[in-house]
Amino acid sequence: LSWQAVPVSALQQLMTMLQHLYPNYASRVLVVSLPSYLAWFVRFIKGMLDEVTAAKIELVDGGAAGLRQYYTTQGLPAYYQRDQGG
């Protein structure tokens, strides 16, 4: 079974069902420094989610430099605090 064999409408129905069964309590989900092929996949999946859930998912490039728009350096995990150059 491949992704191409599954109709898009079936995937959309599955995503809707999963969103109702497993509600999302996060206010924001930051996905940091993904390779381009995975970022494409995340954008593809976001297109199947409802607007509220999709708006919570943000792709952030640049590691610590990209995260600094959301957090102070002290608020970042230790491994990002060491990444002062970005």
Summary tags:
single chain, mainly alpha, two-stranded parallel sheet, elongated
Question: How would you explain this protein's 3D organization?
Answer:
- By secondary structure, this protein is mainly α.
- The protein contains five helices and two strands, in the order αβααβαα.
- Strands 1-2 form a two-stranded parallel sheet.
- The longest helix is centred in the first third of the chain and has 14 residues, at 8-21.
- The protein is elongated and about 45 Å long.
- The model has no long low-confidence stretch (mean pLDDT 79).
Order of helices and strands: HEHHEHH
Helix/strand/pairing category: mainly alpha
Low-confidence stretches: none
**Overall form:** elongated
Q: What Rg do the Cα atoms give?
A: 16 Å
Strand content: 5-15%
- Widest beta sheet: strand line-up: 1-2
Number of strands: 2
Tally the helices: 5
N-to-C CA distance: 41 Å
Task: Outline the secondary-structure elements.
Layout (H helix, E strand, L loop, with lengths): L7 H14 L7 E4 L3 H11 L4 H6 E4 L3 H4 L10 H4 L5
Parallel strand pairs: 1-2
Report a brief summary of the structure.
With 86 residues, this protein is mainly α.
